[in-house]
Amino acid sequence: MSDLFAEPTPAAPLAEALRPKTLDEVVGQRHLLGPGKPLRLAFESGKPHSMILWGPPGVGKTTLARLMADAFDAEFIALSAVFSGVKDIRDAVARAREVLAQSGRRTIVFVDEVHRFNKAQQDAFLPYVEQGLFTFIGATTENPSFEVNSALLSRAAVYVLQSLTEDELGELFDRANDRVLHLEFDEQARARIIGLADGDARRLLNVLEILRTAADAAGVARIDGAFVENAMARNLRRFDKGGDVFYDQISALHKSVRGSNPDAALYWLVRMLDGGADPLYIGRRLVRMASEDIGLADPRALRLALDACEAYERLGSPEGELALAQAVVYLACAAKSNAVYVAYNAARAFVSQDESRPVPIHLRNAPTRLMKELGYGRAYRYAHDEPEAYAAGENYFPEGMAPVQWYRPTERGLEARIAEKLAYLRSLDERAKQRAKE
Questions:
Q1: What is the dihedral of CA 316, 317, 323, 326, to 10 degrees?
Q2: What is the pLDDT of residues 309-332, one digit of tens each?
Q3: What range defines the domain where residue 187 resides?
Q4: Is the peptide bond before 403 cis (omega within 30 degrees of 0)?
Q5: Would you list the DSSP string of 72-106?
Q6: What is the pLDDT of residues 194-232, one digit of tens each?
Q7: Does residue 245 contact residue 277 with C-beta atoms inside 8 Å?
Q8: Could you give the number of structural domains in the chain?
Q9: Tell me, what CATH number does 348's domain have?
């Protein structure tokens, strides 16, 4: 069984050496740890409860679990879902029973990256959580609504942790330098390091550790912004290609396009590209936006989005990214309509609940003699032979089904003209019905 919390050695990473020993040393998460806040109350209650700590990397999930074990004088068993399996869970259960029998102490079982456990592995905890054999604490960077079994989720409180602010990262920066590093940084270097951390405390400390090594090797006494730029080979912002950060950003891009804000849309596009998103995935989402949010208000939008994908396929990065930017700006500025999207969903909902209605005889194809003898296609009115190429009064729905109007064009862009045409055609239908009654 892995132990994530062995005592740090003299060569321990800076992140481990500075791990908080008390709740008051924790930087950030004031919405959970401030006076009267949920996790502070949990620590002060005298009785631990099962919980899931959900938040981005480097915000203190592991630290809080360890501090809770210390606060309740509980046996602490740590598992990593990356390396552990059902056998490790059984070993943890056996250890919890042994501790309870020998000393009567509680046990906290901490599972890091719990979202990586499959359903069977997550289910293995349920009976022991219900029995109260141990307190379960899971840590995850993924939305527990999707990644944690509903049965386990219902037995645990979910606490959402947030990325550290620049001020909070600055506090951690000063603590690391005062206690361990004892280096001299100028303001530009300090700001650059905090920016590189991108809300992640562990990343901040790792960057500082890299800089300490680089400064020692170069014999540098004072670290400035230029030294930070040279020492850090590449700035990789946090971008989880399969997790919530990814979907939050694509959601922000989509909503900026829908909200007709080209500058915000460009910002989210560049954020995603900068973070390593697949440009063709973004292209596919632009195609979706063109259909869902613009539709027939500007049919050119769909073609332009498809052209942007093709241009990227031909050019690759970085040249092809400009075509995606062009498409994003166009989609954001285009007239908006979700009329087709709404109509399609309404039609799908209707068909999923409706009976399987047969095609009317007059609309059926008649490629064979037998079909013609059966009346297939008889009395069908060929629209091109009718005035204005429109068979006024003709029915195209199944017999017995009341006509419906799912598609309701807006008054924006080309759809305004489509609305006028459809209104005119319906007026012809009404006239035809009146003549039929006479």
A1: 160
A2: 999 998 988 889 999 999 999 999
A3: 166-231
A4: no
A5: TT-EEEEEETTT--HHHHHHHHHHHHHHHHHH---
A6: 988 888 998 899 889 888 888 888 888 889 988 888 888
A7: no
A8: 4
A9: 1.10.3710.10
